[in-house]
C-alpha cells in the first residue's frame, strides 16, 4: 500500500513538472508548480525526512512560490511581452535542443542508476550502524546549527529575497520617474 502511494506521488510530481515546463501560460504554470513542490514534500515524508518536508513547505511553497506569484502579478504586460522568446533572438532555444539536453541528462542519470538504487554512503552508514529511524529527533541539532553556525547564510538569503521583491515592485511601477 505504501509503495503504491509513493509511486502515485512520484508520478504526480514528474507529470506535473513536465507540464509546468511545457505550459505557455505563466499563471497556470505557477499554480501547477505548487503541486510539484507539495509532492516533493510528500516524498520527503516517505524518506523519513520530516523536518526537510516541513522546510520544503515553509520555504519553497510559502516563500519562493509566493514570491514568484507576487513577481508575476506585479510585472506589467509590456515587460512580459518584451521578454517572450522569439525565433530571431539569440536567447531563444529551439525545442529540439531542449529535448536533446533532457535526453542527455536522462542518459547520464540512467547510467548511474545502479548506484542510485543503493548509494555507497548508505551501505557504509549501515555497516557503521549510523542509520536514522523514524523515532530519531534531529530537529534540535538542525535548529542549533541554523542559529549558530549558519546564521549569516540564513539572514543573507532572507535579505536577497527581500531585494528581489523590491526589484520586482520597482520594475512593475507605472511611474518611471526614478
TrEMBL record:
Keywords noted in UniProt: Cell membrane, Membrane, NAD, Oxidoreductase, Quinone, Transmembrane, Transmembrane helix
Gene3D superfamilies: NADH-ubiquinone/plastoquinone oxidoreductase chain 6, subunit NuoJ
Pfam families found in the cross-reference section: Oxidored_q3
Location relative to the cell: Cell membrane
Cellular component, GO annotation: plasma membrane
Top-level taxonomic group: Bacteria
GO molecular function list: NADH dehydrogenase (ubiquinone) activity; oxidoreductase activity; quinone binding
Principal location class: membrane
Enzyme Commission designation: 7.1.1.-
Recorded catalytic activity of this chain's protein: a quinone + NADH + 5 H(+)(in) = a quinol + NAD(+) + 4 H(+)(out)
InterPro entries for the chain: NADH_UbQ/plastoQ_OxRdtase_su6 (IPR001457), Nuo/plastoQ_OxRdtase_6_NuoJ (IPR042106)
Task performed by this protein: NDH-1 shuttles electrons from NADH, via FMN and iron-sulfur (Fe-S) centers, to quinones in the respiratory chain. Couples the redox reaction to proton translocation (for every two electrons transferred, four hydrogen ions are translocated across the cytoplasmic membrane), and thus conserves the redox energy in a proton gradient.
UniProt family annotation: Belongs to the complex I subunit 6 family.
Protein name as it appears in the record: NADH-quinone oxidoreductase subunit J
Organism of provenance: Candidatus Sphingobacterium stercoripullorum
High-level lineage: Bacteria, Pseudomonadati, Bacteroidota, Sphingobacteriia, Sphingobacteriales
